[in-house]
Amino acid sequence: MDRQMYHYATVSKALEELKQKGYTTDFNLEEERIISHYQDFTIEEVYRYEGETDPADEVTVYGIKATDGEKGVFVASYGAYTEKSAAMVLHEMTIKNREQ
Known about the structure:
Elements: H1 11-20, E1 25-26, H2 31-36, E2 41-49, E3 59-66, E4 71-77, H3 86-99
Parallel strand pairs: 1-4
Antiparallel strand pairs: 2-3, 3-4
């Protein structure tokens, strides 16, 4: 992953900029698709936001692309990382990509 990454001041600013880059699908509405067909997605951008006082304020914004060219975002909050969640699948994909 040799691309320049930007860190936006807020989650809403990141979502706005990603939308301008063509990430228009809300993949939070398609969690089952990500879980069932994770191999059809590539994580292109990742932004992490941490709450200053409360870990429950942590959020990760994923800019992902499907093999058919569809681009969108997935926003995972602190509590979203359950064993069989799309957030966990994307998190594991991020770790796997770092190891390669």
